[in-house]
Amino acid sequence: MTRRILVSIVVIVTGLLLQSTLFWNLKLLGVRPELMFLVTILIAILEGPQEGAITGFAAGLAQDFLLNQPKGITALTLTLVGYAAGLARNYIVSPSPLLPTILVAVGTAAGVVFYQVVAFLLGQLDEPFSFAVRVTLLSALYGAILTPIVYPLLRRVIEGSRPTRVVRF
Amino acid sequence: MVTRQRPRSTRLLVVALVSASLAVITLDYRQGESGPLAGVGTAAKTFMAPLQQAVTTVTEPVGDFFSGLAHLPSLADENERLKEEVAELSSTIQQEGFDQAQFETLRDLQELSLTLAPPVVSAAAVTGNGFSNFEYTVTINKGTVDGIEVNQPVATGSPESPMLVGLVVDVTAISADVRLIIDRDSAVAATVENTREAGLVEGQGASDLRMGFISPGTLIEGDEPVFTQGYELDGQAGLYPPGMLIGQVSRFVPAENETQEYIEVRPAVDFETLQFVLVLQAGSDA
Q1: Quick check: is A15 in a domain?
Q2: For a designed S-S bond to B17, which of A40, A79, A87, B170 qualifies (C-beta 3.0 to 4.6 A apart)?
Q3: B169 interface with A at CB cutoff 8 Å
Q4: What is the pLDDT of residues B51-61, one digit of tens each?
């Protein structure tokens, strides 16, 4: 369990570091990927709604504390995104390898819209509608592009962190 | 592998996490910059600052690599050996060009620091950028131990053309967050060089800055430079020193009503490639 928590922390910190450094120079038409959304949704797909919600809350809170904006909105958003992605994975039975990519794209788009609506209602967002739509679509597209690279890596890391069952005779 | 969990306990957990998130939003809203949540934020930034610096150092060549790829000629009939040779030579040239550009930037900043009117508190390197698509900030590698404080202006450029970068909005012992002038929460008192028309330059994110409060009928031409304007209110100096270049007029926006006109201003600083800055003493302390 401790190993599992440590792995999650390392994944979240790595995502935050890459988002604020490397991906600043690798923008897609001016928009950076939402790596915390990507990590949350992929862990939810791999582990289910409970793990998805917990990872989303932790990743969102970590990002909130690094922003110079009101804290808690990202945690709220990612908790719901993680839970919903885990539920969707439970109920959608498809062998398609594209399923994670589609879930990431849809989940990121829905999550970014939810974040903007909450931030707007709290008087914290003053972006034009066109910019909001652009960020939503491009961050969803960027997440979908990154999924085939990140998903196998994350699956390997998560499976490696599971305790191995030892059968003694 | 997806594990089936008891739905009821999962739902209870989600309700608890959502409640915790709402509690954080409420606490942060009520306590602002003085509560324990602000302290946690400072601790998180202190933890991340050296990691960001290390990652920036490591990933810089990766950025150069992708940049190099974009500029390499693509000749389909070229054999593999020649391609590798070209890539190697291009990389060497780019590295030399990069080193030369970096040297010139640092030399300009050194000269600029000797000529600026408000004393320079510290020179700093940019080690990270904002974490969100809705926030335009950079993180620098100097903090309270170097004399950095909130509300200190940040500049870059050369002695001939000092340029405004932004304002320190948060500081830890070893790092500080600088809100760029393109951030939507940024507002700078400014003046257009030739017409001496004064106004307020506000950030518009990825778009050009917008300068409002311009008198109707004012004739402003394209490419006119826009500088910061000094002012004093109740004995308190403004946040930014006067005479720093903000950008150039890129577009005239017709008046939406009878009393005001607007212009758009293209920032002078290229925030995508910003590497080094000077933090200046705050207006009221200078």
Answers
A1: yes
A2: A79
A3: yes
A4: 888 888 887 66
Is residue B148 within 8 Å of B163, Cβ to Cβ?
Answer: no
> Considering the domain boundaries, does residue A168 fall inside one?
no
Q: How many Cα atoms sit within 13 Å of A66 on the Cβ side?
A: 31
CATH number of A131's domain: 1.10.1760
Q: Which domains does chain B have, with CATH numbers?
A: 187-267 (2.40.10.350)
In a domain, A106, yes or no: yes
Nearest-CA distance B229 → chain A (Å):
26
Domain with A68, as residue range(s), is: 2-156
Q: How many alpha carbons fall within 13 Å on the CB side of residue A126?
A: 11
Task: Provide the number of structural domains found in chain A.
Answer: 1
Chains A–B, number of C-beta pairs less than 8 Å apart: 152
Q: Does some domain include residue A7?
A: yes
Radius of gyration (C-alpha) of chain A in whole angstroms: 16
Question: In 3D, which of A34, A78, A32 has the Cα closest to residue A58?
Answer: A78
Classify B156 as helix, strand or coil.
strand
Inter-chain CB proximity A22 and B55 less than 8 Å: yes
Give tens-digit pLDDT for B202-254.
998 878 899 887 777 777 777 889 999 877 766 666 788 888 999 999 888 77
Distance from CA of A126 to the nearest CA of B (A): 7
